[in-house]
Write a structure and sequence with these properties.
Layout: H1 3-19, H2 30-43, H3 59-71, H4 75-100, H5 103-118, H6 129-132, H7 134-145, H8 149-162, H9 167-178, H10 186-213, H11 217-233, H12 243-248, H13 250-268, H14 277-293, H15 307-319, H16 321-341, H17 350-359, H18 365-370, H19 376-387, E1 389-392, E2 398-401, E3 408-412, H20 417-422, E4 425-426, H21 440-453, E5 457-461, H22 469-478, E6 479-485, E7 488-493
Helix pairs in contact: 1-4, 1-5, 2-3, 3-4, 4-5, 4-7, 5-15, 7-8, 8-10, 9-10, 9-14, 10-11, 14-15, 14-16, 15-16, 21-22
Length: about 500
């Protein structure tokens, strides 16, 4: 085995060990709970965006459904998939670093990327689109560098289907390919750009066709694309609406102007200085960082999108003296801007000690789960109650469970975890109050769906997370307070739905 392959094997082994505790994590992370609940619904025949709602492009939901269908319906399934996915990402990222530069830079960049995504610093331990899309993005660049532009575009498109901001990584590579144009090879560059764009468009077209054929085009387009316009507009007001968004885009504007100047110069000459790998890294970092921060919400896992370019620039700076000053300035600017915008990466020092205590039976599951979020043990307890026994015979054997397979549930809170943990089908397409709090129309739709489906139980957080008058009326007309557990009131329907 070559030395570099041995080092890569060590990196992968250490990465696996760092991520091993994620395989034992309880379901505590809201985004994962949303993906799991939607994946479960898809496996039951539900149509995304019609029967159940979230605002991302469909890739992560169907990937979750696949994991649940193959590996079993537990949070472990997506955690295991993520572990394998990250290991594959590191191998491809290493190959990309080697293709752009050399073995040393590739290995150092891979180590940086592995550490920053495997330690619980920027939520790299969570199953999210940001970390998943690095694999197809890296493959897209790798195939593009080998002049397989159509296949490159396909992989960028798959990343986009996982989450919209991947379009900025595609744009960075598109600009890079465009900058190779000159009077001498214009006939070659333009077809390359068309192949790249064609590869990008086709998977999106196929996904759109799938939803259109299932009568869900309108809901798909509105939820996956139009909804994101208002979503990313949050927190970006500066003097005018989305003013901060424009300020964040200034580096991209400068790159576009530079590109126009360079392309114009190239078209006037038979060939100029070729664009270098280091120039590509700068373009990639600027575009991917903008993709990470252009929304006004400050979730640390957004920063993962910029990590590949960040890791490579840091590694190149360690070995290339001529680039060192530029590289370290770029790294410093990214760190300062991330902090100035409000991102607060942090390392939970108790993450690994709590895991060790749990697997060695020194602490209970409830204590371990509460270490992630204090609400987690409550969610498990309520889900267990809903799925538990209601009637026993004289031999203390369960003869009737509290809920049946076809019973539904509605949770008036930001706790989609309970749907998945209980195995109960959501009574509405809206599975978290976050999707309802700012839309009167969505509240009326949700209340109408609840009234129509007649869930056996409705859970209401006390105090409620916000106003929901339409649901309050449904509760007063058809439900009685059945029980309370901590801050959750459990309402039961007056008469069981007909079967």
């Amino acid at each position: 085995m070559k030395k570099q392959h041995l080092i890569l094997a060590i990196i992968l082994s250490v990465t696996f060990l760092l991520r091993f505790p994620t395989l034992f994590e309880p379901l505590w992370y809201t985004d994962e709970a949303i993906y799991l609940t939607i994946g479960q619904k898809i496996l039951r025949g539900g149509m995304m965006y019609v029967d159940i709602f979230d605002h991302k492009t469909p890739g992560i939901y169907y990937l979750t459904a696949g994991a649940l269908g193959i590996l079993g319906q537990s949070v472990w399934s997506i955690k295991f998939l993520l572990t394998i996915w990250v290991l594959a990402t590191l191998v491809v990222f290493y190959l990309l670093g080697r293709r752009l530069f050399n073995e040393k830079i590739a290995l150092v960049a891979t180590i940086i990327f592995s550490v920053l995504t495997s330690l619980p610093i920027i939520e790299g331990n969570a199953f999210n689109s940001e970390i998943l899309m690095i694999l197809p993005i890296s493959l897209g660049i790798l195939f593009g560098l080998d002049k397989k532009f159509f296949l490159s575009g396909v992989f960028f498109s798959l990343a986009f289907i996982l989450k919209v901001p991947a379009v900025f990584d595609f744009a960075a590579f598109f600009v890079f390919v465009g900058l190779t144009i000159s009077k001498k090879d214009i006939a070659q560059t333009i077809p390359n750009l068309l192949k790249l764009a064609g590869g990008f468009v086709i998977p999106i077209f196929l996904a759109t066709t799938y939803f259109a054929l299932n009568g869900a085009f309108g809901q798909f387009f509105e939820s996956a694309f139009l909804y994101n316009i208002s979503y990313t507009g949050y927190g970006n007001k500066f003097i005018v609406e989305n003013g901060l968004l424009l300020i964040k885009a200034l580096p991209i504007v400068l790159i576009v102007l530079y590109s126009i100047f360079r392309i114009n110069r190239g078209l006037k000459t038979k060939g100029g200085a070729p664009i270098t790998a280091k120039e590509f890294l700068i373009i990639w970092l600027v575009f991917s960082f903008y993709g990470a921060v252009f929304g006004g919400r400050l979730y640390e896992h957004y920063l993962i999108q910029a990590l590949p370019a960040f890791s490579l620039i840091t590694a190149v700076s360690c070995y290339d003296k001529k680039f060192r000053r530029t590289g370290f300035i770029l790294v410093t600017v990214i760190l300062v801007l991330s902090s100035a915008l409000g991102f607060r990466p942090w390392f939970n020092s108790s993450y690994y000690t709590n895991f060790f205590q749990y697997v060695t039976n020194r602490t209970s599951f409830d204590t371990y789960a509460a270490g992630f979020d204090k609400k987690t043990p409550k969610n498990y307890a309520i889900a267990s109650f809903l799925a538990g026994c209601e009637k026993y015979n004289s031999n203390k054997k369960c003869i009737q469970t509290r809920t049946r397979k076809d019973d539904k549930l509605f949770v008036y809170a930001n706790l989609p975890d309970i749907y998945f943990l209980s195995g109960l089908d959501p009574a509405s397409r809206y599975i978290t109050y976050l999707h309802l709090f700012d839309s009167q129309k969505a509240q009326e739709v949700a209340a109408g769906e609840v009234e129509k489906s007649k869930p056996k139980y409705i859970l209401v957080q006390n105090p409620p997370p916000g106003s929901f008058d339409a649901l309050v009326k449904v509760l007063s007309d058809h439900y009685n307070l059945f029980a309370s557990y901590e801050d959750m009131d459990i309402y039961k329907i007056n008469k069981p739905p007909s079967r």
